[in-house]
Amino acid sequence: MRDGKPERSLTLPALSVRDGKPERSLTLPALSVRDGEPEPSLTLPALSVRDGEPERSLTLPALSVRDGEPERSLTLPALMGPQWRIVQRWVEERTTNPMSQPEPSIPEGSRGSTPIFPASAYSSIRWIGQLTLLVAMMAVGAGLHYGATRWMEPSPETRAPASKAEEKSENQMTVSLAESKWEAAGIRIKPAAREIFTERTWRSGRIMLNEARIAHISPMIEGIVREVKVRLGQDVRAGDVLAVINSRELGQAKLELVKSRLATNYARAQYTWTQTTSRWASELVKAMTAGQSIAEIEKQFKDRPIGDLRQQLTTAYSRRLQAKAQYDAVNRSEVQGAVSPGTVVRLRADYEAAEATFSALCEEVNFQAGQQVRASEQKHSEAQTAEALSKATLMMLGFTREQVEAMDPVAEGAKVAHYPIVAPFSGTIIEQHAVLAERVGPQLQMFQIADLSTLWLQADIPQKDLSLVRQLAGKTVRFREHDDSHAILEASVFYTGDVIERTTRAVAMIASVPNPDRLLKPGMFVDVELTRPSETVTQIPAEAVQRQGTQAFVFIHEGGDKFRRVDVTLGRESNAIVEVTEGLKGGEPVVVAGGFVLKSELLKDQIAGD
Question: What does the longest C-alpha to C-alpha distance in the chain come to?
């Protein structure tokens, strides 16, 4: 009030109440007129009445307004039942004839202990002012606490400057938390990093069998399954027998091996004998050609195997020696003339004939010896070839050279037709199709073995991400299981894809994954991480960011127990790291864990301040 007169008009709630709620409000004319025009009015909250009576009192702003702001507030006591009825009757009388009715008389006993308005004020206000004050008393006494609090907020025009100031101060709000409580609250402080931001993209992939360590095992020959020695899921070593089949073809191959071995042994013995006899025959020829005596020759070659050639050479050599001796005897000078010339000629002819016979025989022996050696060698080679073919047939059936060399089909007896199915390498039986007494052959897969200690990781990389995988060959990539985002594993990339698949428009990236504990299973879906480094930016853990509505903020440690809220603008986020584009500098001490506790303390302080 200014100079005993109210300045503004007042919007009052409806005087008619239905089901405890007002139906409409009523705006009264201005209480103060300046230059012939009423000034702006002021809105009061709606009336809320229980059993026809207001419940509690409420603090209202002063009716006197200066420069758009209330000067002081006024507390009105709650109206009880008698007051309500007096005011209601007074309003009805004034509404009927507002200018002729006298001022209402409110008993002293029906008011609160403190007078609402001084008597001088009522004398200087018109009847409309009196009505305004009485109805205002009724509104204050009847309004519920929550409704009055909401409706009594200042108008938007009055609130706008205060909101800006409030927003400005909110960005600089601080909160205190004793250092002794940091551990319990999980407070961790770390400087904001100024580093290269690495964008991380996750693409779907799957775990596969190592195709270089898979064996589809089928028998090389046909037969009947006699025994199955393994079961599904069993780990086996290289060379372990998986099953045994009876095979007629195997038995025949082993018998051929026996025959070829016998032939080879005979041919080898013949070849060895021929070589020996031929060599010693040649030595005998050399000794006879050198003119050694029969006695010396017999002594030298007594235990040497020469064969039939020995007799032929000895006979020819003896005749030669005898003819030579007779001719030499008649051809001496002291006996010349004693022997007729015809005898000398005959003896000379006999000597020359014996010499020619011996020489021809020596040549024949040398030639025959060579021929016999070559013939024996040929037969020996043929026998060896036949044996080699028999061995090769068995090795083609899956036996190793050592196994074939150690075979003794005669000693094996009935087991000569047993054909073992063996593991080519160490692994696990992941498929089993062998059944007892079943006829099997090369076209039927009996087992499948896989080495599960190493697996493959295949990821289909879209065409738009090809730049991320071009440099990955020979490097490692990280991946994680779908249901476990914390267990990060690594794989070595050996193939980055050369062909884009027609339907998916993606290339297949394949990496090798060690699996010593057998925790990864073929067919399992995983997420594969692809990285792309970018420029240097300010970045913090995503856990450090708090939000109030749509506004993101962080807490900065100002030293001691003080923390300050700082609003930030966020950029890209990757792998729980977020880029900060505005509001934060590198190196500032940021609360990276426990920020929610500080946020709760800050909001609690704000509520207490309000």
Answer: 213
